[in-house]
Fold these 4 entries.
Entry 1:
Amino acid sequence: MSVREEFDQWAAEGRDRGMEERHWHTAKHALARMPVADGDTILDLGCGSGYAGRALRETADAGRVYGLDASPEMARNARSYTDDPRVTYLVGDFEHLPFADDSIDHCFSMEAFYYASDPHAALSELARVLRPGGTFYCAVNFYEENVHSHHWPEMVGVEMTRWSEREYRRAFRDAGLYVAGQDRIPDREITIPSADEFPTEDWESRDAMVERYRTYGTLLTVGVAP
Ligand SMILES: C[S@@+](CC[C@H](N)C(=O)[O-])C[C@H]1O[C@@H](n2cnc3c(N)ncnc32)[C@H](O)[C@@H]1O
């Protein structure tokens, strides 16, 4: 199945809101770190339900927000959750961003970047549209060090690029972005049942679940356009 077909189905089944709820645990910490100033133009790559853009409009007074998603159904759902005229949801793909050079102040992406069919091309596009000093906050739960995520491509049924922390840094630099920081944001909100409730359908042991959420969590890599 293509990424578009997969996520069209998720959106049609209303699973975009469940995804938002789970991702919000760590996404909100990444969003809170973004140096958004009044009036800035923001891009959310792979926006899903579009919650990140709406949050930045509400909390950081972003001037203009664009959420871009390959799935028309996701973009349609996202549009239905707001009537803010400064928030726009577009259908498009990471490798062909419909924006002029140097036109975006900050970009955010949560649990989406690794679906890019050509992640290097996606980073080059991003470097093109970011204004000098603009930032890219790239958050992923699927990455090499997080061994508990390795089976996801078979589970979801679409291709994903599994980079290590070092590979993310190198790819950002190769695309012409400085790496301003990289760290893991633990998910402290997910409920982890008591030891006697394991194994479960998803977890062999409580330790594995603790490691996945509290030790690995979300990998955040921050790039800055020169
Ligand atoms: C796992 S969802 C995450 C959605 C949202 N960012 C969140 O945190 O809930 C990944 C989203 O990225 C979108 N996506 C994947 N590859 C894409 C691409 N190449 N171009 C645009 N959107 C893409 C999918 O359609 C999907 O809505």
Note: The chain has one domain: 3-189+219-224.
Entry 2:
Amino acid sequence: MSEAIAFLPPQAAILSRRAEILADLAELVPAGRLVHEPNALVPFETDGFIAYRRRPLAVVLPETTAQVAAVMKYCHRYTIPVVPRGAGTSLSGGAIPQEDAVVLGLSAMSRILDIDFANRTATVQAGVTNLNISEAVGADGFFYAPDPSSQLACTIGGNIAMNSGGAHCLKYGVTTNNLLGVKLVLVDGTVIDLGGKHLDAEGYDLLGLICGSEGQLGIVTEATVRLLAKPEGARPVLFGFDSAEAAGTCVADVIGAGIVPVAIEFMDKPAIEICEAFAKAGYPLDVEALLIVEVEGSEAEMDAMLASIVEIARRHGVKTVRECQSATEAALIWKGRKSAFGATGRIADYICMDGTVPLSQLAYVLRKTSEIIAHYGLRVANVFHAGDGNMHPLILYNINDPEDAAKAEAAGMEILKLCVDAGGCLTGEHGVGIEKRDLMRHQFAEVDLAQQMAVRAAFDAAWILNPSKVFPLEGRS
Ligand SMILES: Cc1cc2nc3c(=O)[nH]c(=O)nc-3n(C[C@H](O)[C@H](O)[C@H](O)COP(=O)(O)OP(=O)(O)OC[C@H]3O[C@@H](n4cnc5c(N)ncnc54)[C@H](O)[C@@H]3O)c2cc1C
């Protein structure tokens, strides 16, 4: 698999000036914040998309916006590629460097700057982890809603760059719906502020543009996010079905009836078995598919919403309905779901696909996915944000077997094309990165791509920010 995806060829002129560049960068960041020894660079060679790796020219770990700006000004002046990096949990290879690139790591910028309960906002540096925000305000009855399963590690800067989602985004929206402002370092080192503590930033919606721009329009160094009050109560409920298709159609009917629980998560039988073995969450093992549906509010509100959902589930032949009885049980149910990728990694290597489909197509796409996987003689575990139609087939393979790896990649590409052809799109929350870059022409016409590239070029005419990602490489140098 490792040579299938191309990177822009390294610029010989940059590589030949490495010693000089390292000396210059050392002047721009505090002592110990420049990483260049070969062994020390290894952790920065890849991210959550482990099938690919490249050793960067160097890594800088600034502590302030001013240092980020100085690094950008320098790299812009000498046209040195820059790859921003948060925690490196990207599943699409977004943070994988190229050989002539400086990795700009934001993990040292991990301070919470301001918590403002009156305005219900938190302002944090880009390297603060997603979970840190909720932990910082939890005792006061607040939380930050987007909750990627990687929230223990991933940073708010990475979340913004990928417009990340999570299990509870069905009701609360993804990162873009919870972001109010950013401090952004532009490619030439200029620092700008977009938005603030108020809703709806003035002027063009540049904040919306930055969210999901995969590190190609600027470096986020600070973010102001929305805080929400914790609900009065929350209850996850397990619904077990005899087929994946019945579960998929049930999801479509719940949303189609205008019912919006906080979360609707799906697991097929392999995923149930993998997660149960890891978390001992009490998932039913005698069903083919499981939905975790969480409702919240007062007891009366939760009872009313659940009654409507149970009625719809019965129409789809639900086999098991289990209401969670305690906070401990609820925590275990979510632990199992949120550990799904890690638990899968205990039994096999996997690549995680991330297509999104209209809910009416869920059952069809699940069936066709099984057929594609069977055609390649592979195994799959499906565990995903069903309420959002955001599918995550985890294709199991052996990373040390090139034939197996090539099959996994081919099956994954077919599944993503299937999602597009079913009226959906290539990515729900993991971004395009390098993983889906070569499929962009399946989703977009040339004229659409040209327009998007023009927007990117308006921010970065020299194309130095994360240059090997998102757009097909042909036609660029
Ligand atoms: C086990 C596991 C579970 C996951 N579950 C989810 C999930 O439920 N939902 C979800 O959406 N994702 C999920 N992900 C994917 C990943 O965690 C998210 O994409 C996350 O937002 C990446 O954050 P990061 O800090 O690790 O960023 P990185 O991986 O370091 O970088 C991701 C991208 O953001 C850019 N970037 C990083 N920081 C900045 C910055 N400050 N300014 C500009 N650009 C920047 C990088 O260049 C890169 O393109 C999961 C990953 C793993 C490994």
Note: The domain at 3-105 is CATH 3.30.43.10 (Uridine Diphospho-n-acetylenolpyruvylglucosamine Reductase; domain 2).
Entry 3:
Amino acid sequence: MREAWQHFYGTAFWQRRRMLQLRMHPLCKFCAADGIVTPATHVDHVKPHKGNWNLFVLGELQSLCASCHNSRKQHEERIGFDIAVDADGWPTDPHHPANRHR
Ligand SMILES: [Zn+2]
């Protein structure tokens, strides 16, 4: 799926930030959590920036391997909403099924 903000990833800024992230965190974070050492090839925003340049530039990053990156992206695209919850444990995304009939 290509988004309108896809060009963010073609900027010199991103090339540099991505390179620095992989240099500081060369291993896949999700695999490491399972005790597996896998070289990271993808740099992912922990919180989806959804085209917000400030979040894209300043948002926290995580290094992932291709397999973890793809499964994460496919999961988000398949369910079509954000699974983040507020302090009460209620989903914050208005597209979440729990919020559709309120
Ligand atoms: Zn991984």
Note: Helices lie at 12-24, 29-33, 53-58, 66-79, 97-100.
Entry 4:
Amino acid sequence: MNTYKLLTPGPLTTTDTVKQEMLFDHCTWDDDYKKITQEIRSKLLKLAHVSEDEYTAVLMQGSGTFGVESVITSSVGPEDKLLICANGAYGERMEDIARHAGITYKIYHQAYDKVPSADRVAEILDADPDITHVSMVHSETTSGILNDIESVAKVVKSKGRVMIVDAMSSFGGVDIPVADWGVDFIISSANKCIQGVPGFSFVIAKLDELEKCKGKARSLSLDLYDQWKTMKIDGKWRFTSPTHVVLAFAQALRELEQEGGIEARNRRYTENNKLLIKELKELGIKPYIDETHQGPIITTFYYPEDAHFSFNEMYEYIKERGYAIYPGKVTEADTFRIGNIGEIYQEDILKVAGLIKEFLQGKSGR
Ligand SMILES: Cc1ncc(COP(=O)(O)O)c(C=O)c1O
């Protein structure tokens, strides 16, 4: 099979042992299967540092966006108003979700290379008492910036509002003490830092806020409250569950534990990321986000200055030699992105940096 490793922010390269779990066609309603779902839910709470008395985990069919849409459209009621803090495409997607559902919202736009400011959120909340909920992305995969959800959540809680965090590309790879930071709903998906395969998202929700979602959902299949009510009984999913993906995810969680938990995984990702930035800087390729705010998941790089450069040509060159990278997503500059999560190690980073060097030297005829 002609394969390559993914240097993308998910789906990402998974282990063979995770993929092997998908060779079994599991029955959805038998007790063994339901038990697996319950174990996953309980492990997710541990990773989030929350107790079962205060929080619960709900798994939702579909990709990450389905999870975000489920939370927003199930928790922000007809009398409520949502403040969206956006510094990238995934913050802006929350606006799209709100618009589609007819939810009343305000958006606080921040530049893509800056983090939303907790002081500004405080001012907006003081000026607009109608705002009941605040949402924000943690790792904005558009650029790779890591937003300061701790400071923003502190303000949101001190002003008595509900905090929603999209931690799609950070949960499992960056430690998030969900209860201590005052997050009410946090969303991620199977194919990111836990290193499973795509097919479902998950929500860790504060129980008292989840109870308030009853009857508010704008759609049947994305009703977070109803999904929870069914799943909490014995682990049965409300509609057909992605059985193969669930088995793979259970294995991915075991492998996260074997690696040494979030702390060890974060260390590996951070080291990958630092090495990548160092190696590319040596080739004259600069990162778009400054060092203080650069997250450990994915990096946006400016195109090299003097090279006559086609991203597609470089992409093909690298792909043929075993790695897939990503085009840029920021709007105001020519950039490309390299993710360093998944089954990716320092040797992969060195290889890809070597390939970029080779490609650029070939271009300049050096
Ligand atoms: C921060 C963030 N939010 C939301 C999404 C959307 O997830 P999906 O493409 O799985 O729907 C992504 C995808 O990469 C993401 O990185």
Note: The mean pLDDT is 96.
